Task: inverse folding
């Protein structure tokens, strides 16, 4: 029998009630604002959470901003519906939280909560290390080269386990990897930031090398505001990091491809899509049979709207499976 994940509550309770070993507290004195830009996971989970909390008596304001809404419009909606109107607890995604002005008494991010739960489920299912015991899995920024490598190792192990399970149920004729925005999420974002910071602080860094790193840092920041599309590390940055700290960083898409090959998939049946999303055509994903496209979820919505739409159009074939990371 499947576990009952959502309590069947008939209405708010004025005193704590106990059903079996579960306790449902009275939340009638609490107010919560849930605000996020819609996607399939957030929309489904947060509407369920809102319903459960309301049945417990909590006063919930749900602000769901339509998927694809621009950063400028998100900022306007936040100013109009959240800033200055809430003094309680706010549960928001990263997109919304960065536009919240006066900080509320408590601010939680949906992305971190959902990611933590997803990691726990995946690790329990595949028998991988518990994330609360594996410090490197949750540390925002590695503290050393060793920790950075351990973080990549643990995530690589998790990704390979999921990939092997997926390949057992379906074997695609070809796997395409999108490098666009892959560095937006862990473990790539934290490791890249760590390596750039370590290189900039090194006495061995050259003035030219620091200039290349600062330029790439600005590109990453621009991409997080949904502007720059190409988030691959330029060769000048890789060279500067190596010269400063003696470590050769690998591109996120290279690590993804390596994990696919290590899972037993043939290398010659993998392709990195090294082109602008606006240049993708019917010849890009042209392998016969079932095709997988692996990419960061931001690749399908960030940046120029026509580029994101072009990718979605050509990635929507009936024999195409999209595996969004993280």
Result:
């Amino acid at each position: 029998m499947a576990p009952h994940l959502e309590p069947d509550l008939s209405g708010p309770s004025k005193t704590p009630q106990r059903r079996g070993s579960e306790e449902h507290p009275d939340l009638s004195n609490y107010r919560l604002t849930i605000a996020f830009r819609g996607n399939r996971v957030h929309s489904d989970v947060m509407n369920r959470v809102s319903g459960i909390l309301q049945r417990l008596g909590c006063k919930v304001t749900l602000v769901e901003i339509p998927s694809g809404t621009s950063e400028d419009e998100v900022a306007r909606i936040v100013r109009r519906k959240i800033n200055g109107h809430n003094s309680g607890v706010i549960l928001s995604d990263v997109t919304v939280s960065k536009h919240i002005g006066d900080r509320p008494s408590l601010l939680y991010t949906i992305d971190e909560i959902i990611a933590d739960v997803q990691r726990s489920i995946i690790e329990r299912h595949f028998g991988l290390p518990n994330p609360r015991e594996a410090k490197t899995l949750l540390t925002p920024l590695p503290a050393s080269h060793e920790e950075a490598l351990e973080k990549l190792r643990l995530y690589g192990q998790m990704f390979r386990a999921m990939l092997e399970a997926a390949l057992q149920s379906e074997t695609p004729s070809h796997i395409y990897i999108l490098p666009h925005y892959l560095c937006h999420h862990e473990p790539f974002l934290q490791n890249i930031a760590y390596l750039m910071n370590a290189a900039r602080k090194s006495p061995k860094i050259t003035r030219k090398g620091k200039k290349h790193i600062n330029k790439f840092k600005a590109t990453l920041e621009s991409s997080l505001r949904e502007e720059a599309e190409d988030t691959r590390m330029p060769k000048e940055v890789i060279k500067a990091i190596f010269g400063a700290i003696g470590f050769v960083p690998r591109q996120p898409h290279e690590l993804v491809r390596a994990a696919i090959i290590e899972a037993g998939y043939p290398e010659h049946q993998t392709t990195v899509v090294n082109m602008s999303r606006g240049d993708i055509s019917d010849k890009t994903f042209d392998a016969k049979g079932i095709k997988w496209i692996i990419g960061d979820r931001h690749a399908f919505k960030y940046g120029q709207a026509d580029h994101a739409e072009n990718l979605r159009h050509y990635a929507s074939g009936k024999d195409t499976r999209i595996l969004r990371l993280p």
Observations:
- The CA atoms of residues 96 and 274 lie 31 Å apart.
- Residues 1-21, 131-139 have pLDDT under 50 and may be disordered.
